[in-house]
Design brief:
Layout: H1 2-25, H2 49-57, H3 63-73, H4 78-90, H5 96-117, H6 136-164, H7 167-170, H8 175-185, H9 187-195, H10 201-214, H11 216-226, H12 234-258
Helix pairs in contact: 2-3, 3-5, 3-12, 4-5, 4-9, 4-10, 5-10, 5-12, 6-11, 8-9, 9-10, 10-12
Length: 262
Amino acid sequence: MLRQNKKMILFTSVITLLPIFIGLFLWNQLPDSVATHFGLNNQPDGYSSKALKQLFDGKKISRSEADILLSMCNNISPVFITGYMVHQTIGDDSYMIPALLCIYLPALLFGASRFRRINTKENFPKNEAPRSQITFKIIDAGIMNGFETLLKLCGYIVLFSILCEPLKLLQPFCPKVCLFVNGILEITNGISYLGSCGLSRELLFLLGNTFTAFGGLCGLAQTSSMISNTSLSIQGYLRDKCLYALGTFLLSLVFLSILPHF
């Protein structure tokens, strides 16, 4: 058991650190002052729209590339999936790797196929900031910008969590509707509610994967806030997230159909 847990920790750590390694590999192509953040709602969620916004504002990537990356990379973190959704809610660690594959593969495959169809000749000059410009004023601005971003994200989480509360009163009368609405509104409350419904592990796996792939309307509002000053399309983001959620749902069904054969 201990050996299996070590393998899972190693596997999820590699997935979690992979975006950092990609960022280091592409470091010379990035602007010197890229603001990154990690949205926190008492659970890691891995949102990173702010960095994408600045790459697009700095004309480091095209509009088409930004639209694809916005929906493809803005996902729930592996820690949330393996720790909260699978280990705590489903209660069976054997679902960890299947859950990661079912949630991430549709976005990766759809995103990669769209990248292959892009035929753009846009060339963006690299605008490197001189090192002399990196002053404490820039650092101060980055810190304040980070606090503002964090407050916005947490504010939406609180708002949508409040919206989920009245649904508890309706649970005895329409439990299925409450289950669906909770999962669509806010992912953390949705997964928590899902775990309290007494469903089978297979159904928890299917619905948990689908809700997580969609990310909730709270995640949609957070993303809209981060890209509000750009021309990026939140409608396109919503369309892509619905498509990824459908892909995750179908892939989860395929996994559950072959599970008895293992």
